[in-house]
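We give the chain.
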Amino acid sequence: MSIRLSVRDGVATVTLDRPEKHNALDLADARELGRVWQRLRTDAAVRAAVVTGAGSRAFCTGIDRDAVADPDAVPQPHSPFAVEDPLLRIGPKSNDLWIPVLAAVEGMACGGAFYLLGEAEFLIATEESVFFDPHTTYGMVSAYEAMGMAQRMPFGEVARMALMGTAERISGRRAYETGLVSELAPPGGALEAALRCARVLAGYPPAAVQGTVRAVWAAREAARERAMAHAPSLIALGNLPPHRQADLFRGRPRGAHSAPRIR
């Protein structure tokens, strides 16, 4: 299994551990990540958590395309009003976990990574980290990802990121300037900076901390839930068929001549 869990000083560190795949999640990883959050719900010794990716090249690049290349891997309902999404329950809030969860980002964070980032209380990254959303490039609707980020970033910024696809990446510095990232750490230092904050939170009275987490999220939930109710039909109606997505993915340009613009 590619999800590692360690606990120290009241803080759980959840690590996506597939650096050779840029910490992309296969279907087993997605299920295990949900189980990890559920396990932490009943562990009174854990009062805060940090989620991060192994290595320095990527935090997470979403779903592993190889894992869902088979059209039968994730069978879809025959309705434009429903969609089967294997990443929908990989986040802590989706699993009813209300301890504070911080994200430590090094390298790339893209696509399905936003399911996790959208459910963290705040993000710590490095200037070398980059954020982008490849969905439109490959004929897919950015729905859940864009909706989650729309509550963290100015409208124009999230719209640009979601629409520009792989042509443009947001630097850690720009993410900090727009409020997506709350602190910039030196290269290799995002995890330690996040753990430092998490240890502070773990030292406070748990009920007060968790009540505050719940209060902050209560302010967001009405808009979030109404938006996400539209997501299945938008995805079902706007996505290209899987084989066309695969053709676009296989045909993506490689090399320096195709490097995306970073701002």
Notes: The chain is about 35% helix and 15% strand.
